[in-house]
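Many introductory courses stop at the sequence. We go one step further.
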Amino acid sequence: MNPYTLPDRELEALLHDDAPCGDATSFALGIGPQPGRLVFRARYDMVLCGSEEALRMGELRGLRPVGRVAASGETLAAGAEILSLEGTAGSLHGVWKTAQTLIEYLSGIATATAAIVAAARRGDPDCAVVCTRKNFPGTKPAAIKAVLCGGASPHRLSLSETLLVFAEHRAFLGDQPPAASIARLRRQWPERAIVVEVGDETEALAWAAAGADILQLEKLPVDAVDRLHRQIPGTRLAAAGGVNAGNAEAYARAGAQILVSSAPYFAAPRDVAVTLTALPTTTEP
């Protein structure tokens, strides 16, 4: 299911970046007005993301869709058609590579996200996967869409809407007790969960006793997560640092209710096969 579509201004910026002064080759060959068809297909199995943006790019250049457009969030088998567009060769060439590349990168993120979610749910059906704000700068709306299409949620959309206390914050608190820090955060932001990142079990127990809502366990091994889950069952545990499809099941089974990962942002793109063919020119009577 498509959570949202990137706005026209962002899509226009992408198209303009690829052809700031038009398509020199199509212009020089004089093929711009000729009719054609552009078809996008999944080269391998994938969780799709970005088809709505590809369609809208085509519409912005006067192209029309032919047949069904696969929706972001759909799981596609190799060879499945994503989108087919018809129009002039000039517009088809102007949209082709930008639309293809966007789908490939976003589908790579969505597919990798889905793999982590599937692994986590094998360990605990109620385990949640969230992805960090470590997306490539400037790509947040697109990256978050891909994360949502893969079945996860954003960990933090920004610094402005979450409370996450790092050791780097605590370095400026001097000898302030954890309970005092928690109390201050609750007074200032009474409706928000307080998350504290910890680097070992001793820190985890101290901040749990102080009243933290969620402990973000940075690079703690699975056995440490299991011990903490048994010691402080009333505190939600979030495993973070190095979480991927290979270890998500183990962390979920050990008692981490939340898995925090940046791995999907570094996933390989999912290849999209493209065919561009000329259509017969209609002759007016």
